[in-house]
Amino acid sequence: MKKLTFTIVGVLLAFFLIGCSKMDPVALVKGSTLDIDKSVTIGNAFDNYKYFKSVVWDAGQDEQKRQIVTFKGIYDPNKFAGSLYLINLELTPEKIAKALQANPGLEYSFVVQFKLAVDGKSFEVGFSGIHVSENENGKPSETEQQDENNQELQAVYQNQPSPTVVGSLGIAGS
């Protein structure tokens, strides 16, 4: 009888702990899929994108206390060598070096913010876009371009070069 009581208490305690625990928001997003391609998780698509030199996942809250998961992948410009920009113009290592030499502080990153639902079990993409940090004439500046047509998101999922980064490096390196 004593053994049965301990077993029942143990099972009830396990259910209680499972019911009280909330899933890690980053793990929730990384383990989920987007309609763009349900054959790969968000975490696998983003963490294994070959044009990033580093990635960062972060969970937090916005001003209205909404739970937000932010992904930031910093592009490695040198990995874009051989990519095409404009009409059949190749992005060469020399053009990339020229673009980076003209602007030593140039950095491109892909930023996605996921807004979690109040239930903590679902989310939606709140923002997706390219963040550009540069140092023009000795003055740092930052801009952000929203990914309105999901071209950047599709490039990540297809493991293809970012159209925005390729175009910017190609023009700056010409």
Summarize the SSE layout with pairings.
Elements: H1 2-20, H2 25-30, H3 42-47, E1 52-61, E2 67-75, E3 84-85, E4 89-90, H4 93-102, E5 107-116, E6 123-136, E7 139-146, H5 151-157, H6 163-172
Antiparallel strand pairs: 1-2, 2-5, 3-4, 5-6, 6-7
Helix pairs in contact: 4-6
Notes on the structure:
This protein is of the alpha+beta class and about 170 residues long. It has one domain. The chain has helices at about 1-20, 25-30, 40-45, 95-100, 150-155, 165-170, and strands at about 50-60, 65-75, 85, 90, 105-115, 125-135, 140-145. Strand 6 (about 125-135) and strand 7 form a beta hairpin. Helix 4 (about 95-100) packs across helix 6. Residues about 1-20 have low confidence and may be disordered.
Report a brief summary of the structure.
With 174 residues, the chain is α+β, with helices and mostly antiparallel strands.
- Portion of residues within helices: 25-40%
Seen as an oligomer or otherwise, the chain set is single chain
Q: Give the spatial strand order of the biggest sheet.
A: 1-2-5-6-7
Q: Given the structure, what is the number of helices?
A: 6
**Which class best fits the helix and strand makeup?**
alpha+beta
Estimated share of beta-strand residues: 25-35%
Strand tally, please? 7
Distance between the termini: 83 Å
What is the number of domains? 1
Rg over alpha carbons: 22 Å
Silhouette: globular
Order of helices and strands: HHHEEEEHEEEHH
Poorly predicted runs are: 2-20
Largest sheet: 5 strands, antiparallel
Average pLDDT, rounded to a whole number, is: 85
